[in-house]
Here is the input.
Amino acid sequence: MGSIPDHMLARRREVSARFLQGTGIEIGALHYPLWVDPDRARVRYVDRLTVPELREQYPELSAYALVEVDVVDDGETLSSFADSTLDFVIGNHMLEHCENPLGTTRNYLAR
Here is the structure.
């Protein structure tokens, strides 16, 4: 399992600190959640499975601590969230797994 180079992690942290504030979600963080400034942003974690189910699905991640899933939901529809209730959505490495990436992006913009 590869890791993200330090210079890329530093840049991601800069971008996160600059732009993420308020209440939002991260979809499918698994063992690599995006860093967010806890003084500016509150993140809940969304996945399609619970942590025990994720462990079963991804045995190759057994050595890693997984983010505790707060909401089990379809990451494309986000039906657990009403419109205009989120300030941001983090979906790193998410859109390439979507059946309908444009529809998913529209759903994100509505939330």
Notes: The chain has a mean pLDDT of 93. Residues 6-110 form a domain with the Rossmann fold fold (CATH 3.40.50.150).
